[in-house]
What does this fold into?
Amino acid sequence: MNSIGVILGITLMYSAPLVFAAMGGVISEKAGVINIGIEGMMTFGAFTGAATGYYLDNPWIGFLCAALAGGAISILHAVACVNFHANQTISGVALNLIGTGASLYLARILFDGATQTLPLKKKLPKLVSNADGTISLDSTAAIAFILVVLLWLYLYRTKGGLRLMAAGEHPEAVDSLGISVEKIRFCAVIASGILAGAGGAAMSLAVVSSFSQTVISGHGYIALAAVIFGRWNPASVALACLLFGFSQSLVVFLGNGTITIPSQVLAMLPYVVTIIVLIVMHGETRAPKASGVPYEK
Amino acid sequence: MKKTRLMATMIIIACIFAMGCSGKKKGDADSKNGDMKDDYNFGLVTGEGGVNDQGFNQLAWEGYKRLQDEFGYNVKYLESKQESDYGANLDKFADEGMNMIWTLGFTMKDITVNAAKMNPDLKYGNIDSVCEQIADNMVSVVFRAQESTFLTGYIAGRMTETNHVGFIGAMRSEVIDQFEYGFRAGVAYAAKETGKEIDVDIQYTESFTDTAKNKSISTLMYSNGVDIILPCGATLGSIEAAKEMNKYVIGIDMDQRHLAPNQMITVAMKNVDVAVYEITKELAEGTFEGGTEHSFGLAEGGVGIAPHSDNLVPGEVLKEVEEISDRIINGSILPPKDEEGFEAFLKTL
Amino acid sequence: MNMEKLIKIQLTNIILATVVGFILGGIVLVLTGYNPLEAYGALFSGIFSKPKYIAQVVIKSTPIILTGLSFLVAFKSGLFNMGAEGQYLTGSIVAAIVGSKLDFPGGIHFLAVVVSAVTASALLGAVIGILKTKWGVNEVISCIMFNWFLLYLNNYLITTPWLKKPNAEASYEIHETAWSLVAGKWKTTEKGIAALSGSGSPFAEMLLRTDLNYGIVIAVIVAVIIYILYKKTTTGYRLQSVGANINASRLSGIPVEKNIICAMALSAAISGLAGALTITGMMPHRLSQLRVHEGYGFSGIAVALIGANSPIGCIFSGLFYSMLEYGSSSIQSKTGAASEIMDLVIGTIIFFIAISSLFRIVLKKKKGESKHE
It folds into this structure.
């Protein structure tokens, strides 16, 4: 019984940062802009959150700054993809380099040559927890899942959301209604940057309490995979993130038991599970029709 | 349309400016020449962790910085981003007129031996490799880390209230084996002494960087009744778990007690800085002897538990730790460094 | 627009983007208190001041030219190969096994290593292709998953007694017969060292002090073959048409599924070749315990994009990329500025390549202004 609580806690801990970033991916792709720069935006958010949180001695301000920093850096992507009709992949790759490079460069300047920040005195609090670790819920995890609900409601139940999705499916139609596709896409990319930044901070301010070179290592790509896995639907994407978090917690759980599987083999588990689940689900994945296609009037 | 594009360009440039502006340079770079003496130039080629890895790369660099502060020698480092950088970095330093170059980690041993053969005028040093077939102008340094982890294992064995402690490894290697088996032997020794039966949970993360995994494993161990953990690899994760659940954790390599003053009971120190400092100084003093292996253990002050551990460790335990430490130094206790040694050690108890 | 003009525009864009990237990097350096001239001086003297440095750049460029080509091949068929990293590992794992476990005479051994490594990674690519066409598993996901899978497989294999070298966290070295080093055996003998270090010529120094190997020649040949494939053959045409318009290809009778699988296999094979050539061409000629991915896959994407998705362009962009990467450590050791500044510069360059329509607008505006005067 104890173990179930712990596994649940670990699953949520692993998934929360992924959910943030993946929701960012959903918004952006639904509006028609592929964002493979999520990794860079997450890193930049993780750094900014940890650095500002440390200097201002408040994790919540850090979290906010991280979201803003993610949004700020995503302006580059928005400008490139919306205003310059750039190849979205190229721009995304550039942002990955710029996001990581800027984080490490600034870290070295602000933290005396180190590529990591000093730990915060207080990190983001837990919503609920008990001493033996069987109940544990980060506040970021709660925010992440509220976000999923809100995003789902926004996309499928509001006019704005339907327009956003239309911009990613039939931009011409949106345009013919006199609504600016460019404006929608621009805002969507910024929103995705804000969420990716928050996702980074969910890692550096809640899971741990500092930024280091490897605190974000591949999380952005896993989030990207989750977006496709969940077929661009916020609820299924969140489930994909949970599945990934769950298989990570299984690795931890099985490694702790008496079964003697080499730990390297065990570590492969989440990746193998993902592929198997995808094969079993067996279906055509279809991206929003105009995703990746620059819209030119 | 054109206007928006122009605006957009302005925004981009402003962003990039802002990125640069947000930090002002603090102090001077470590490797500025200034008015330092430049009698001696020393280089350090780090592994993939980089010079701020909170581990032995950083310690080695601290040893260098002490040399710079005390004697004004020029010190520099190059970070390797992947294995194929080792050779190029070594070569670059050879060109920069270094007197001695240190490389860190057994993965760099072969390439260092090679470089030493090619540059007979230069001196080389490698940490964590044994001395077979090294060149005459090279030294190798090994740490008997099992001696310090034995002591921490003993402390853990004495302090555990649940009779259940844990060890979290990163990836199996000789160095990590020293940690694991030294620790387990220490726990076993304490169990024997106090007549208790103490379980040791052991789990490997297969990563030096996955802090979330370290944290998860620690959380699971603590909730299973473990009350003291010695973690390696991404130790920050374990420290976080210890803080959240208010359990004990033991530090490794570097003194990180400031991160968790109420949870980190002690640290199994590996004083790479001392080794680098002492041996490099020998070179400047003219007593350097190549082709040798330096083994640093408790006796040489190369490993040990953190000073002033009395904050959380009871005084009586520390007293006995001192006694055991003496017995390790005089050879009456031999902490094991691998599985084989561990099995043999258990039989002697 | 004719081809020549297109290439010319692309080239101008890349050059302008590079200039802008360096200028903005310089601004960041100034703002953070470093002298950009000094930093860039260190960068370029670290690359060009000795023949052996140039050799290092060339050596470093080999794997990323290949992973760049690998990305390009998939991209032309509308596939997004994020899995070069894992395919590279497949190649190096198989190369290390064949190179250390089997015995062949020199030359043939090298061929055996390369062929088996390429075959293995082509199979992995085919699996990714089949997963996509049969079960609708998006290649981006399967690639990312395989990257991690193979990282752990690599780390697992080197712990098995069969492959693990005693007292090392690595596999056995491959035999010298499989090396692709220039004068590999001779230059490590006492005689070779004496001859080379005695001569004093910078080229002898280059040979002695670098792992100069034939890999780059193979990479260039592969680039040329890919170029011809797409320019002159119907196979190339089919592969490309799947990427250009999948429905039109289906209507015109091109077997789409088969071409997707082939494209993915070819793409993966090239990345596998990169892995094999690193094992045969560079010290320490073995697999090591990997803490993180080595980043060849990601660099490959950047190389393909800077190279404007042209196979020949990849050669130059690969050299350019490895030049900046290699030189960046000189910046750090000579001026103290963090070497990450080069990541920013490279990122900025790629970014300005993405928005290169900006240059056209600016140029047009200039022209317009001069007309007014």
